[in-house]
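Re: the 404-residue chain
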Amino acid sequence: MTIKRLALITLLLLGMAGLGNTVVQAAGICVHPAGAGNCFTSIQAAVDAANDGDRISIRTGKYVEQVTIANKDLTLIGQSGVVIEAPPDMQDTLSAVGGAEGRPIILVTEAEVTLRNLTIDGVNSGEANPFLDGIVFVNAGGVIRNNLVRNIGFGEPTLIIIDGFPTYQGNGIIVANQSATPRTVIIAENRVVNFNSVGITVFAETDPGNPAASTLTAHVLDNVVTALGPNGVIDQWGIFLGGYNFADPQSSVTGTIKGNRVSDQLTVSPHPLPGVGIVTLFTYNVQIADNVIENANISIAANLAFSSFIADNQLNGPRPAVPGSTGLLLSGSDTAVNENRFKKLDLGIFLFVEDPSFGSALNTAMDENRFENVAVDVLTGAGSTSALMLTSSTLPTQPKFGPR
C-alpha cells in the first residue's frame, strides 16, 4: 500500500468518524424547564417528538406534569436535581391500558423503556388525585434504576372506603404484564419512601381461558423501601411479586428479589391485617436472597412458591413488639430455605399444611437457619387454625395494581 493511498484512507476514516459523532449528537433530545439550549420545556413534549430508540436527557429542575410513554422504546435520564411532580389535577391515564383506574405520574405501555436518576414526587396529593401512583409499566419492560419515588399517598396512613369496601391507594412502582408478550424488567437501586399502600408491585396476569399466555421475569435488586411505620389504619407491603390465573407455575412469574432493604411495614391494633416486607404469590424459580427486612408484622410471605430459593436474609422483628410477628410464611413446593437469620420474633418459620387458601409447603429443605430471641423456631399447620398466627385470610391475593 502506497503512502498516498494510506493517507487517503486515513482522511476518509477521520471524515466518517466526524460524521458519526455529528449524527449521535443530532439524535439527542433534551428537556430544560426554561427551554435553554433549544431543549423542550416539558418531558411529555420531548417524548412526543422522540423516535423509537431515542435518549432523552432531562436537565436539572422541577417538572409538574404527567408523562405517558406508549409504543416507543426510549431512555430517560435525569441530571442531579430533576423532580417530576404530580400536578394538582391529574388525569386517569391507566384505565385505557390497564383496565383499572389510576393516575400515575409516569406511565409506560407497550414499550421497552429505561428510567434513571429521576425523583418522582406525588406531593401527598392522593386526596385530590384518586389512585395516585408513582411509576407504572403496563405490558412493558425495561429498566427502572436509581430513582427516588416519594410522597405517593396522603401524608399519613389512609384507607379509603368506597361503597362500603376498603380501597387501597398509593403505590410507588407498579409493573404489570397482562399480554401474551413475555417481558423482563429490572427494578434496581431505587428508593421508595412515604407511600400509602405497596412500595414495589410486580405481577403478571393472564386470561383464565388461556392460562399460559403471559409471562414476566423481574429482577428487584438493591432497593430501599421504607413505609410509614406503626399505624392502626392500613396494612402496607414493601415488595410484591406475583402471578394470576396461570395453570402451570413454570409459565408464571420468575426472577430475583435480592439485596433490598425493606422496613416499617407495621400494623398495630385496631387494624386487623398485617404489614408485610416481601410478598410473593404463585412464582416459579424465584430467588429471595440477601434482603434485610425489619419492623414488619411478617417479614416474608412466600405463597405458592415453586422451586424457589430463600437464603441469607436478615429478618428482624418489629418495634414495638406486636403479637404474631413472623419471619417467614411458606407454601408451595420444592423450596430451599437456607442460612437466614431470624431475630426478635414470635415465630421464625411457618410452613402451611392443608391450608384452605394456600395448600401445603411440600418438599421444603431447610438448612443452617439461625434464630435469636425467637419464641418458636418452626411451626406447621393451617394458618387459620394456628393460635400464634394471623389467619391466612389476612394475606389476600392481590387485586389488579396492588391491594385496591
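The longest helix spans residues 3-27.
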